[in-house]
Amino acid sequence: MINKKGLILGCSLGLLMGCDNQSDNTVISQDTALQSEIAGLITRSKADMVFIEGGEFMMGDFGPLDKEKTGGLYYGIGDYGVRTIHKVSLKSYSLSRYQITFHDYLLYRKSKGLGNPYPIEHITAQNRQDGFNSKFENKKWLKLSTNTPESPRQSETPAFLPWEAAQEYCQWLGEQTGLPYSLPTEAQWEYAARNRGQFVLYPTDNGQFEPGRNVPSYEQRQQRRHLGGIDSFPVGSFPATPLGLYDMGFNKSEWVNDWFDPDYYSHSPEADPQGPAEAVFTDGYGGTGFSKVVRGYEYPMDLIMTFFRTKQKLWLEYTPEVFDGLYYVTARCAVNHDKPLN
């Protein structure tokens, strides 16, 4: 005679074990899917690296050197030291053809066990003191970091990052590939934007500024702002430079590795300059954070030439969990290796 209690207990254990196995399989399946996505990201990151043969160039506002077009006058209205034209010699390196996207950055964070860092509910008292609107931020950051009907292909737009987060992302790619990934130096960025140091004014397909064709027009930016709350575009939306680089200067500013010093060009070393050895400049705005160099994207856009430089301060207390500051700055990674990766 079969013991009914034993039968019920046995069935219950079997069901429980089945549930545990199903749960385990789900976890394994999710982990496998994540690892597959990460592997795809690593493969893409290497394939998207454009090899740039090193050489010499005159860095800075080259107007006085381009006398046929300028009569020896400077091109740029701003300064920040760019009128100190100086000779630079670079080793070969590779630079990503695309800026870091929200999709790829959030995937990296997922691989590290970190959540969405954008301050939907974490607007600090300092943010409010600096005049940032928390209600505005709640809606905007949600759109910026998700792919929603109101924000089509938003995940393929440049990720807005603190400098530290951008550098961490590039270094993580280095850990995954065994290659020396980092943010590019300012000299590497300019050399690449100028098609290996030529007298190129705009980092576009033909060196010209043609709104609506090779750079976004005012109307296109307005349309994007209505769709996604911000006027950046999916990476690669406009033609590449002759070297095969996209969005150099016109799809938000980009961090580079260098500390900002308005006088650095006057004493920059010729061979592979890395910027100041330590932080040297702060303007005190919004705190006392020191500044890194950023390249590209200011207004009016037709003044943003290949040699244009400005600065963005770092927040005093960076944590990878939540970004408490507003950064309309993105980045692209470089690989300091003197041979092509592919």
UniProtKB/TrEMBL annotation:
It comes from the Bacteria. Residues 47-276 form the Sulfatase-modifying factor enzyme-like domain. SUPFAM superfamilies: C-type lectin-like. One of its GO terms (molecular function) is formylglycine-generating oxidase activity. It holds the Pfam family FGE-sulfatase. This is Sulfatase-modifying factor enzyme-like domain-containing protein.
